[in-house]
Amino acid sequence: MKTGVTTPKGFKAAGIHCGVKKSKKDLALIYTELPASAAAVFTLNKVQAAPVLVCKENLQKTKKFHAVIVNSGNANACTGERGYKDAIQMSFKTAEMLNIKPEEVFVSSTGVIGELLPMDKILNGIELIVDSLAEDDDLASAEAILTTDTFTKTASGSFMANGKTVTIGGMSKGSGMIHPNMATMLAFVTTDAAVENGAFQGALKEISDKTFNKIIVDGDTSTNDMVIALANGASGIEPIQSGTPEFVSFLNCLGKVMKKLSIDIVRDGEGATKLVEITVEGALTDRDADKAARTVALSPLVKTAIHGEDTNWGRIIAAVGYSGIEFDPSEFEIIINGSPVLKKNYEVVLPAEEANKLLEPREIKILLKLNCGAGTATCWTCDFSEEYIKINGSYRT
Asked: Which amino acids are annotated catalytic?
C-alpha cells in the first residue's frame, strides 16, 4: 500500500544507488508532469548549503515546479563556489532529462559536510534514475534520502473537497542533529490539491512550526534542512483559499501527515530507545510553555535519566528553572504516563522504585503543570544512549 510522495495523483518517484555511498541507495527523484505550485521552509543556520541557496533562488524565478532531485551521503555544504555550481548542475541535468526548465527543479543534499560531490556519479545517476520513475515508488525514494536513519519515514492522508478526494503524501529523513528551526532533516510533501500560493506557504509554515519545529534529539541544527511541498492540482478541485472550510480540511490533513513524519524522526533518533512527548500546561503564555518544554526536551541529564529509567524529577524541575520563564516552583507538578509523580509543594507521590517503572515503555508522555496561567505547548524528544556517541564518533568512517 502506498503511503508516501506518490500517493497523490500525478506524482512519480524513484530511488537508486549512484555511487555516493558504498552500496545503499543515495539518489532520489520526485516528479510531476503537471506543473505544481510550491511552498518551502529552510534551515535558519547561518551556514547554508549550496542546495538551499539554489532552492531559494528558484523560488524567486518561478511559481511552478516539476521535480525534486535529492542525494544522500554528501551534504554539499561548506563547499564554496564549486559546491554552488555543482548544485546548479544537478538542476540543469535533471531538467535536461525531464525536458523542463532548471529553475523548475528543487535540489537537495544530505550527508557529510565539507566534501565535494562526486559529480560524475551524480550526473550519471540522474540519467539513470529518470527511467526508474514510477507511480508506486514510495519505498525506494524514501530509502534513498536516508543517512544514519534506521527506517524509512513516509505518511499520507486524504480529505474531501467539493465532492472530490484530495490526497497529501510525504517522506522525510532525520535521526541526529535534530533541533527546532529546522533540524538536520529533509521532508518532501506532495498533494494533488490546488492551493493558492500564499495560502500554501502559510499552511506549510504553520504546520512546520507545530511539527518539525517541535522535535528535539540533540540540539544541533544542520546546514541543509528543508521542507519542500508541491501541489499539482491533479485532484481537479478549484484552488483552495485561506479562510475557507476546504483550507481548514487541508490544514488538518497536512498536520496529520507532517506530525507523523516528524515524530518518526524522533522515534529514529540516533541511538534512541524511547520516544518522549513533553507537554507543559499552565504557563503564563504559550511561548513560556514552549520554552520550558524545549528546555526539558534538550537537557542531557533528563534524556540520560529517561534512558536509565530513573525518574529523577529534580532534573526536570531544574531544567524548567533555567529555561528563563517565570513560574512558582512550589506549584510545579509532574505526571508521567498518566500517573502523578510530584504534586504541589514538592510532594513526592510515588516511591522512586515504583515511579521508575513508568519509564519502562518505549513511548513516554510527560506532563508538567506549572499552575500559573493558561499557556500550553508540546514537543517531542528521545532518550540519550551510549549508541548515540558511537554513531556520531564514527560518522565519517
From this structure: 184
